[in-house]
């Protein structure tokens, strides 16, 4: 089974500062992917960043970077230079690959972190 | 725009009724996933189809059913609706089952059961 834990229900950050959203995971899959999605108040799920379990370098996408520590099973999202438009719910998620079939599992989500950027 | 289309965007109905939610995946994507997002249970995986066949089942109630058609669009049928079925229902698609790439989500169908 897969499990994603996000321990911060809510976070506040001042505009233009950096913020780290925590995510830990548990899986028995040897190969897996880790994701962060953003859900603004309008409701849509927006893909932000992806990290493969065998990727040697931490993923970066513009102002987003993923601090991947495999031994600790953590995949924290770092948002640099926060903007007011970053205020949203952020979800960490993962997909593993079933060794038996080679098929990727469905995406398993954490409970989310509500980020509020203060002017 | 993710390329995944869901209709309707909003739906209000009464308890005991039946509704159908529709999803068109991104062009070329063979896998379709359905998720339910409610306030108390977060994002819950319901069911996955790949090229017309059911691949995985999550916390899907017996009152709910889904299918994927030859043109790859999918429908989620919710019957005997209860107040607790009020939620945002997402459809997502991905390219191939063996890759752990991202899922692309539609904008969701917001169901309100009165």
Structure description:
The complex is a heterodimer of chains A (119) and B (114). Chain A is built from no helices and twelve strands. Chain A is an all-beta fold and 119 residues long. Chain A is elongated. The mean pLDDT of chain A is 92. With 114 residues, chain B is mainly beta. Helix content of chain B is 0%, strand content 53%. In chain B, the strands form two sheets. In chain B, strands 2, 4, 5, 6, 9, 10 and 11 form a seven-stranded mixed β-sheet that branches. A four-stranded antiparallel β-sheet of chain B has the order 1-3-8-7, with no helix packed on it. The model of chain B has no long low-confidence stretch (mean pLDDT 92). The interface between A and B is medium-sized, with 27 and 26 residues.
Structural class of chain B: mainly beta
| Proportion of residues in β-strands of chain B | over 45%
Note the main sheet of chain A.
Answer: 6 strands, mixed
Instruction: Estimate percent helicity of chain B.
Output: under 10%
The share of residues in helices of chain A is under 10%
What is the count of β-strands of chain B?
Answer: 11
Task: Give me the secondary-structure category of chain A.
Answer: mainly beta
Alpha plus pi helix count of chain B: 0
Indicate the overall shape of chain A: elongated
Order of SSEs of chain B: EEEEEEEEEEE
Topology:
The complex is a heterodimer of chains A (119) and B (114).
Chain A: E1 3-5, E2 10-14, E3 19-21, E4 24-26, E5 32-39, E6 46-52, E7 60-61, E8 64-69, E9 74-79, E10 88-96, E11 108-109, E12 113-118
Parallel strand pairs in A: 2-12
Antiparallel strand pairs in A: 1-4, 3-9, 5-6, 5-10, 7-8, 8-9, 10-11, 10-12
Chain B: E1 5-7, E2 10-13, E3 19-24, E4 31-38, E5 42-50, E6 53-57, E7 64-68, E8 74-78, E9 87-94, E10 104-105, E11 109-113
Parallel strand pairs in B: 2-11
Antiparallel strand pairs in B: 1-3, 3-8, 4-5, 4-9, 5-6, 7-8, 9-10, 9-11
């Amino acid at each position: 089974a897969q499990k994603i834990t996000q321990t911060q229900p809510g976070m506040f950050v001042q505009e233009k500062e950096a913020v780290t959203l925590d995510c830990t995971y548990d899986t028995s899959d040897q190969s897996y992917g880790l994701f962060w999605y953003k859900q603004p108040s309008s409701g849509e799920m927006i893909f932000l960043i992806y990290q493969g379990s065998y990727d040697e370098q931490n993923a970066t996408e513009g102002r987003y970077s993923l601090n991947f520590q495999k031994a600790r099973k953590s995949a924290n999202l770092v948002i640099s230079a926060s903007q007011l438009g970053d205020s949203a719910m952020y979800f960490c998620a993962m997909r593993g690959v079933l060794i038996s079939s080679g098929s990727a599992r469905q995406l398993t989500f954490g409970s989310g972190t509500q980020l509020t950027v203060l002017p | 725009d993710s390329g995944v289309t869901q209709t309707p965007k909003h739906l209000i109905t009464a308890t005991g009724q039946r509704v159908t939610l529709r999803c068109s995946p991104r062009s070329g994507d063979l896998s379709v996933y359905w998720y339910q997002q409610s306030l108390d249970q977060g994002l819950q995986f319901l069911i996955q189809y790949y090229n017309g066949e059911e691949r995985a089942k999550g916390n899907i109630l017996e009152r709910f059913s889904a299918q994927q058609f030859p043109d790859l669009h999918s429908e989620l049928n919710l019957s005997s609706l209860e107040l607790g079925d009020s939620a945002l229902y997402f459809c997502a698609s991905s390219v191939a089952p063996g890759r752990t790439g991202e899922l692309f989500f539609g904008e969701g169908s917001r169901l309100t059961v009165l």
